[in-house]
Amino acid sequence: MIRPDLDHRRARPPRRRLAAGAMTAAAWAVYAWLWAPVVTALAWLAGIRTAWLRLYLDENGADLFLLLSLPLIALGCAAVLIGWAEYNRMRFAREDRRRRRAAIDEAAVRRALRASDALAHRLQQGRIVQVALDDDAFPLAACSGD
Which residues cross the membrane (predicted)? Predict the structure, then answer.
């Protein structure tokens, strides 16, 4: 999810949004075009070309084994993948990885950073804080960026 404070798409004029979308689509098309030879080579190595020729282009007719086995193999792969996903969903359903961090008091901030009382208060209370550091990387001043 895009954070609302970083999403400036609505502030752009429609022409710039359209141009940005067109450039993104063109970049993805070029990217896919560059990968096409690799995908073709891998498919050829995997035997997809041979299977295609045997199934659809040979004059001798379709091979019944291939006609029956390929869909069954695809269904088996799908069942294994869905089963694994469901197993992981059930296994980790009760886990909450978005727990809030424990609040840190100003005294701990002051001790850890060797900061003054006012500076420790600003660092602890601010959501976005810009910090000026000395040569030893200890904070000298802080201003809120909110």
Answer: 21-44, 64-85
